[in-house]
Specification:
The protein has 332 residues and is α+β, with helices and mostly antiparallel strands. It folds into two domains: 206 residues; 94 residues, no CATH class. The chain is 44% helix and 18% strand. It contains ten helices and twelve strands. The strands form three sheets. The chain has a five-stranded antiparallel sheet. A hairpin with a 4-residue loop joins strand 2 and strand 3. It is flat, with a radius of gyration of 25 Å. 27% of the residues are buried.
C-alpha cells in the first residue's frame, strides 16, 4: 500500500472516533406554532434535542414515545463504529491490500444495513399508532423521511445527516479513495495528480447536496402559501425552495416576493416563476426577464409576467406599453 493510502485510513479512523461523540443524524420539525422549530438529534448512543416536546406532541396522534433505552442500536453502535476505526488503523499498520478491500466492503455493507434499520424504525414509528389517540385521521401515517423533506400535517419534517453522519460518510469516501489508489486506477490517479481535487470534489458534493429542482405546480389543487388562494393560472405562478428542501408555491410573483421578504432570506435557496409564454412551466426566477404592466391582471395584482426569452418579453412590453426588468428589480 502507498503511504498516502495509509494516511487516508488513519484520517478515516480519527473521523470515525469523532463521530461517536457528536450527533450522527438530525430530524427537524417546522410548524407555525414553533417558529424556531424542533430538533431531534440522534447520537451513536442516545437521543437528544427536543425529545420531551416531540413526545408530548406525538402522544396526541398515537405515536410511541422515544426513549434511548428502547433501542438496542444505541448499545451496539458506539462499539461498531469504534471497531471500524480500529480496523482502519490495523489495515494501515498491516499494510495489506486484501485487508483494505475487506474493510471497504464491510463498511459499505454496514452502511446499507444501518439505513435499512433506520427506515424500519421510522416505518414502525410512523405506522404503529395508538387506536385510542385523541387525534385520528383515517389512512394517515406519520413516517418521517429517510432523508430530505416531507410534510406531516402542519409539520414539515427535514431529515439529514448531522456532523457526525457527514464524518462517517467522509470516512467511507476516504477508504474508497485508498482502494482506488491501490487498484488499476492508481497509475491514472498519480499521473494526473488528482488525489486532492478528487477529495475536494467529494467534500463539495457533500456540502452542496440539497433540493434545487423545481416541483411542478398542480393547478386547481395547490394553494398559495401567502394569500391561501388556490393556484389556477399557469402563467403567473411562482415557487421558492428552502435550503432544507421545503417547497412553497404561490399564485402570483407578488405573493412570493412579499412572503420571502417577510422571512429570513438566508433560508431560501432557489426561486422559480412560471414562464408567461408557456403553460405552467417553471423557470429560474433569477435569470428571467420580467414585464410589468397593469394590463396583465395577474391573480393578486402583482402584474408581472416572467420570460426566459428576452425578445418575447420586449415584444409583450411594447404591446402592453409596459416596462421590462430583471430579478434585482423585482426583489428590491
Amino acid at each position: 500500500m502507498s503511504t498516502i493510502s495509509r494516511i487516508l485510513l488513519g484520517i478515516a479512523a480519527l473521523l470515525l472516533i469523532s463521530s461517536i461523540f457528536i450527533p450522527i443524524w438530525r430530524i427537524e420539525l417546522d410548524a407555525p406554532q414553533y417558529p424556531e422549530g424542533l430538533e431531534l438529534l440522534i447520537y451513536s448512543d442516545n437521543i437528544g434535542g427536543d425529545v420531551e416536546i416531540i413526545n408530548g406532541l406525538n402522544h396526541y396522534i398515537g405515536m410511541e414515545t422515544l426513549h434511548t433505552e428502547n433501542f438496542i442500536e444505541f448499545t451496539l453502535l458506539p462499539y461498531i463504529i469504534g471497531a471500524f476505526a480500529i480496523f482502519s488503523l490495523l489495515v494501515a499498520l498491516a499494510n495489506r491490500k486484501k485487508l483494505l478491500f475487506t474493510l471497504l466492503a464491510a463498511f459499505i455493507l454496514f452502511g446499507i444495513l444501518a439505513m435499512v434499520d433506520f427506515w424500519r424504525w421510522e416505518y414502525n414509528y410512523g405506522h404503529n399508532l395508538d387506536p385510542n389517540a385523541a387525534i385520528q385521521i383515517p389512512g394517515m401515517s406519520y413516517q418521517p423521511p429517510l432523508i430530505g423533506f416531507k410534510q406531516l400535517l402542519n409539520f414539515g419534517a427535514y431529515s439529514v445527516p448531522a456532523i457526525g453522519g457527514w464524518l462517517f460518510i467522509i470516512s467511507g469516501l476516504l477508504m474508497l479513495v485508498a482502494v482506488l489508489l491501490e487498484t488499476k486506477f492508481k497509475s491514472l490517479v498519480m499521473k494526473k495528480n488528482v488525489v486532492l481535487p478528487l477529495l475536494s470534489s467529494m467534500v463539495f458534493l457533500l456540502l452542496s447536496c440539497g433540493t434545487t429542482d423545481s416541483e411542478p405546480i398542480k393547478l386547481n389543487k395547490d394553494q398559495c402559501e401567502f394569500c391561501k388562494m388556490t393556484i389556477s393560472d399557469g402563467h403567473f405562478g411562482a415557487e421558492v425552495i428552502t435550503k432544507k428542501g421545503r417547497v412553497y408555491k404561490f399564485d402570483d410573483l407578488g405573493c412570493m416576493v412579499r412572503y420571502t421578504k417577510a422571512g429570513d432570506k438566508t433560508e431560501f435557496k432557489s426561486y422559480f416563476v412560471n414562464d408567461y409564454s408557456q403553460d405552467n412551466t417553471l423557470i429560474n426566477a433569477e435569470s428571467a426577464i420580467y414585464v410589468s404592466s397593469d394590463e396583465l391582471n395577474s391573480p393578486m395584482g402583482g402584474n408581472y409576467a416572467a420570460f426566459s426569452n428576452e425578445a418575447a418579453a420586449k415584444a409583450l412590453a411594447a404591446k402592453l406599453k409596459g416596462t421590462t426588468t430583471n430579478w434585482k428589480g423585482i426583489i428590491e
